[in-house]
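Message: I would value a second opinion on how I read folds in token form. Give me a protein, with the fold worked out from its sequence. Write it directly below this note and I will take it from there.
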Amino acid sequence: MTDRTHIDKYWDEQALKCGADFHASWADRFLIETEIQLVERYIKNDIRVLDVGCGNGFSTVLHSCNRLTEMVGVDYSSEMINVAKNRHTQHNINFQQGDVRCLDFEDSRFDLVYTTRTLINLATWQEQVCAINECLRVCRPGGTVLFLEAFWEPLVTLNAMRLLFGLQPLVEHDFNRYLKKSKVESLFNTTGQSFQNEDYSCIYYVGTRLLRELLVDKEKYISYNNSFNALFADIEKQFSATGCGVQQAYIVKKNDANDHKIPIRII
């Protein structure tokens, strides 16, 4: 596996700097709220839930409630887990350090498994495949796995639009490796997994990563938390579009094969 020292260092520093605040994972509160709302659609009574890449537990605690049989949050960063354990003691959540590439749970343990911007912290496609396999392994047959991640193809589309207006292209952070939708879908088709794709950020990205920068007074709207972004977050809730939402979800219904260890071929 690749050396991920710089990635680990970044997230440990974020935990120390931001504590339990949502900024620890991302400054874009509007998209974080959208992620939370999407996951919440799959939270049902009496199920076991695993949040893979839970960070400081900001989103995890919002999904935790007495009606769940079990809620577990796992993150690779020891500092993030320390924050989660120390700041969210009033919630009945089992926070523990773990590696998405090798989850320390038995097969079929959970009814719902989800990631939010977790796989993009793995440096290679091979490691991302390993992580996808692990999320599927610990989910029961018939259960649901949600992958809420950033993808390469919509970033390319968005950058093409920006180029038309003379704007510089957006780039990945050096601690991110966006997934390719074509590879992910080929992977699920190869393994016979039933899945659907949901572009839950297209309108928001067009507004906040393109139109905002064309404003004459754009300096008034530099931070993510501004009225212009809020406007497009509201529009996103009412209308849907596809093509350039960098943040998207793949909703996988794990197949009912007797063999819980789903074989995944590296593409």
Summary: The domain at 5-253 is CATH 3.40.50.150 (Rossmann fold).
